[in-house]
Amino acid sequence: MAHLLGAERLGLEYPTKVVFESVTVGVTDGDRIGIVGRNGDGKSSLLRMLAGDLEPDSGKVSRRGGVTVGVLTQRDDFGAARTVAEAIVGDTPEHEWAGDTRIRDVISGLVADLDWHADLDALSGGQRRRVSLARLLVGDWDVLMLDEPTNHLDVEGIAWLAEHVKNRWPANSSALVVVTHDRWFLDEVCTETWEVHDRIVEPFEGGYAAYILQRVERDRMSAATEAKRKNLMRKELAWLRRGAPARTAKPKFRIDAANQLIEDEPPIRDSVSLARLATSRLGKDVVDLEHASFAYPNKPVLDDIEWRIAPGERTGILGANGAGKSTLLGLITGELSPTGGRVKRGKTVRVATLNQQLTGLDEVGDERVSTVIGRLRSGYVSGTGSNAVELTPGQLLERLGFSSAQLSTPVKDLSGGQKRRLQLLLILLDEPNVLILDEPTNDLDTDMLAAMEDLLDSWPGTLVVVSHDRYLIERVTDQQYAVLGGHLRHLPRGVEQYLELRRATERAEAAAPVAAGGSPTQHVSSLTGAEKRNAEKELSSIDRRMQKANTERLELHAAFAAHDQSDYDGLGALQRKVADLDEKLSELELRWLELSELLEG
Questions:
Q1: Shared domain check, 423 and 346
Q2: Which of 53, 432, 486, 565 could make a disulfide contact with 350, Cβ separation 3.0–4.6 Å?
Q3: Both 126 and 226 in a single domain?
Q4: Bridge partners, residue 20, by sequence
C-alpha cells in the first residue's frame, strides 16, 4: 500500500514539559487509525504536527506529492462565510452540489435540522461544530484527520458518522486518523490504534477492543508496578469479551487469548448484592412518575410518562437533542414540577447530579483539592460483601488519576477533566442513594472513563445516565429507555433498537406531505382498494393490541413495586415478563410505523 505521509524522529517540548521524544510514525493507503491516551499527553499535538499545523522542535513530517489532507480541529474556522450554506458549499451553485451524492448525504446526516441560510453567529456551539464537520466532509481528501469529531453529536449522529467514514473510500485507499474518547466509534471504525504515552506513540493492531487485549498482554509481561492499571484493563477486557459479543467478531480480536486472560475475572458487577444494599438504603420506594406530563407555554415536552424507578436500577436514557431528556431529569430531581400527573419520591431518597456545568466547584475555586475533600467523610466503601474495601479520599483520587502533588493544587487550576473527576468524587463521598449522570464523559480520556466506570460498578444505589456515549450507556447501565415523541419507551434491545425506531420514524415523516410546495393531495397511496382496507384494518387491530399491552405493562410495574423486594427470584420473574412485553410492544410499534408509511405514501 502506498505511503501517504509520515513523521521521522519528532520531538516536541513546552517550557514545563517534554511531550514527544524521537517519535516515528507513518500513514499509508487504507489506514484507519484511532489515537488514544491520557489528556495532556499530546494526542492533539501529534495530529497537528502530522497535518502541518504545528512545527515540531526536532524531526520532520513528509508528505507524498499531491496528497491532500483535511483536518477537523477543536476550533471552528469558517473563514469569510456568514451562513450555514456559505460555510458548507461556499458559492457553488445549488444545481452542482445538489447533484453530488456525498454532499447530500453529509447535509442530511449532520445539518438537516438547521436553517440552510441561518447566520453562523446565531448558532449554538454544538451546531457550529456540526457545520464545521460538514464543511470538511463535503471535500475530497486523501487523508482525513479528525480531532474529537463526536463532540456535540448525539447517538444517531455518531452512528451516521461511523457509517460515513467506513463507506467514504474504497477498501485500501485513502486514510483516516482520529482522536476521540468515544470507544464505540473507535471499535466501529478503526483498524489500528496508536496509544500516546510517556513521550512515545505505541501502535496496536485493531480497534478499541483489540487494543485493550494487547494492553492487558503487555501489562501482564511488564513490571509489578503496573498491577493497578493491569487489573482495571483486565476488567475492561472482561466486559468487552463477555458483554459485547459483536465486538469479538473483529478479526484482530484474539478470542482464545482474551478468554485465557479473563478466566478468573469475576463479573463486573455483583447485581444481587448491589440490589440488596440499595433496597436497605432506599426501601422499595424511589421515584415514581405517574402519568406525568410537562409542557412549557404552547410547547408540550413530555406526555403521560409512567415510570417506577426501583432501588438499585441502572438505567440509560437516550433521545435526540431537544427530545426532553433534561426535562425528564428535572422531574426526577424535583427541579421541575409536572404540569400533569404526579411524581412521588421515597422518604429516604437523596438525589445527586453530575451535570455538564461542574456545579459546586466555582465556589471552592481558590481552595486546594486536599482542603475540599477534607471537609467530607474520611472513607468510602468500594465493592460489596467479602470484596468490600474502604478507601480514603486520597486513594479515591489516585484511582481517578490524581497524583499526590495535585492534592495541593487550587481547584480553579485543574483541567476540565480533573474538575469532572473531582466533582464525581465529591458526590460519591456525600453518599447519595440516587445518582444522575448528565453527559458525564465530557473532558475524560479513555483510561479515566474506565476508572470512573470501575467505581460505578460497586456503587450501591439507583443510577440514571443520560449520554450520547454509546459505550458508556452499554457499559454501566442494565436497561435503556428512550424519550421519543414526548413518551418514555423501554428498549429491550438497547441502543440498536433505539436507532431502528428513529429510522422508522424518519421514514414515516418523510412519507408525510411536508415537502416544500407540496400538498396533501399530491401524496396518493400506491395500495389498491383491497390492500388499503386490509392495511387500515390491521392498523386498527395493532392500536387495540398496543393499548392492551400498555395496560398489562402498568399492571406488571405495579406488581413489581408491591412485591417483596428481598424475593430476588420473584422479582426476576416479573422483570422477565416486563421484558417480554416490551419486546412485543417494540414489534407492534415497528409494524404500526410500516403500515402508516404505506397508507400515507
A1: yes
A2: 432
A3: no
A4: 12
CA pseudo-torsion sign 141, 144, 145, 148 = positive
Residue 344 domain-assigned (yes or no): yes
- What's the distance, CA 24 to chain centroid? 32
Q: 0.85 exceeded by the pTM?
A: no
| 408: CATH | 3.40.50.300
C-alpha distances (whole Å) from 370 to each of 247, 397, 420, 446, 561 are 41, 10, 16, 25, 42
What residues contact residue 528 under an 8 Å CB cut-off, 6+ apart? none
In 296-436, which ranges are continuous DSSP H helix? 325-333, 369-374, 393-399, 416-429
Enter the C-alpha cell of residue 231: 487489573
In whole angstroms, give the CA distance from residue 158 to residue 165: 11
**Inter-axis angle of helices 208-221 and 255-262, to 10 degrees?**
50
Q: Is the model more confident about 105 or about 254?
A: 105
Q: Measured between alpha carbons, how far is 399 from 403 in angstroms, rounded to an integer?
A: 10
How far is 539 from 95, CA to CA, in rounded Å?
41
Q: Which residues of 391-407 are buried (b: 16+ CB within 10 A; e: fewer)?
A: bebeebbbbbbbeeebb
Q: How far is the C-alpha of 342 from the C-alpha of 473, rounded, in Å?
A: 28
Give domain status of residue 593, yes or no: yes
- Read off the DSSP letter of residue 36: E
Strands 69-72 and 143-147: parallel
Tell whether 254 and 278 lie within a shared domain.
no
**Rounded Cα–Cα distance for residues 171 and 389 (Å):** 50
All residues at 6 or more sequence positions from 405 whose CB lies less than 8 Å from its CB, including other chains: none
Both 554 and 443 in a single domain?
no
Count how many domains the chain has: 5
pLDDT tens column, 490-540: 998 899 999 988 888 777 766 654 444 343 333 344 566 677 777 777 777
Going from the C-alpha of 489 to that of each of 126, 502, 526, 530, 582, the distances in angstroms are 26, 12, 31, 33, 9
Residue type, position 82, single letter: R
Task: Based on the fold, state whether residues 177 and 224 are members of the same structural domain.
Answer: no
Looking at the structure, do residues 343 and 429 belong to the same domain, yes or no? yes
- Which of 20-29, 558-567, 581-590: highest mean pLDDT? 20-29
Torsion sign, CA atoms 95, 96, 100, 104: negative
Domain extent for 222: 208-264
DSSP bridge pairs for 593: none
Which residues make Cβ contacts (< 8 Å) with residue 514, sequence separation at least 6? none
Which of the listed residues 188, 205, 222 is the one where a domain comes to its end?
Answer: 205
Do 454 and 352 share a structural domain?
Answer: yes
225 found inside a domain: yes
Q: What radius of gyration, in Å, describes the C-alpha atoms of the chain?
A: 26
